[in-house]
Design goal:
Layout (H helix, E strand, L loop, with lengths): L3 H7 L4 H16 L6 E2 H9 L12 H13 L3 E4 L8 E4 L1 H4 L4 H13 L4 H8 L8 H13 L5 E4 L9 E4 L6 E4 L5 E4 L4 H39 L3
Antiparallel strand pairs: 1-3, 2-3, 4-5, 6-7
Helix pairs in contact: 2-3, 2-4, 2-6, 6-7, 7-8
Length: 233
């Protein structure tokens, strides 16, 4: 398990990384006979039509790149099984995030489906862990929220609902879009790396302009110096 400082830097995953990690955790708990997973199996798991919001259409190259990023973050590692020519992959969330089985089940649902109420999580995560009702789910979520740093947080209820919704904090907070008919859906939060690239681009342009201004000033100083020397020739 990592210390607090290391974990703080860990909770900055992209949407694609959360989808791959969520799929690995889900399959570990629901179909252990097919786990660890091959690249092809993991691609299919990420893109399956049920239990995924928003839906994705990742290809093998994209998933391979995500796996490498998650391997760097020590959340996924490769497994070479005896007698198998195909490399397999498994998550390392149990150790790196210090998660027991009940916590992994809830986190997998939040990673794969986005914000949900405790009641929805109780119904959907029961295929991965036999929770003892909504109160058990609430208690587990509360423990995850009270950790330092917290791995989950809650938001306002959806229109027409009374229950607060929970979301994971392994990525930027999700954006909830409310439709006119009262139906809500979520889109992943903006990738902070995009903002960082834009900021770096802005700084680069400013630095380039500053260098150009200095070069112009240097040419003027050089010309003035040449004129000054001519007075003594």
């Amino acid at each position: 398990m990592r210390d607090k400082e290391e974990l703080e830097s860990l909770i900055e995953l992209t949407f694609e990384e959360t989808r791959v990690l969520g799929s690995l955790i889900e399959k570990e708990l629901t179909t252990p006979e097919y786990y660890p997973m091959s690249l092809n199996g993991l691609v299919n798991a990420c893109n399956q039509k049920n239990n995924r919001l928003p839906k994705s259409n990742l290809d093998e190259d994209q998933v391979s790149k995500v796996i490498e990023e998650l391997r760097i973050k020590r959340l996924v590692h490769r497994v070479d099984l005896v007698g198998s020519r195909v490399p397999k992959f498994q998550h390392n969330a149990e150790k790196e995030l210090d998660l027991i089985k009940a916590e992994r089940a809830l986190l997998a649902e939040l990673l794969n489906r986005g914000p949900q109420t405790a009641g929805e999580l109780n119904n959907r995560a029961s295929r991965m862990f036999p929770f003892d009702g909504i109160s058990d789910v609430d208690e587990t979520l509360q423990e995850l929220m009270e950790r330092e740093p917290s791995l989950v947080a809650n938001m306002d209820p959806a229109p027409g609902q009374k229950e607060k919704r929970w979301f994971h904090r392994l990525a930027p907070p999700p954006v909830i879009e409310e439709m006119n008919d009262g139906v809500s859906f979520y889109v992943p939060g903006p990738d902070k790396r995009i903002d960082q690239v834009e900021e770096m681009t802005k700084e680069f342009i400013e630095l380039k302009d500053e260098v150009e201004a200095l070069r112009y000033q240097l040419r003027e100083i050089s010309d003035d110096f040449k004129n000054f020397r001519k007075q003594f020739e």
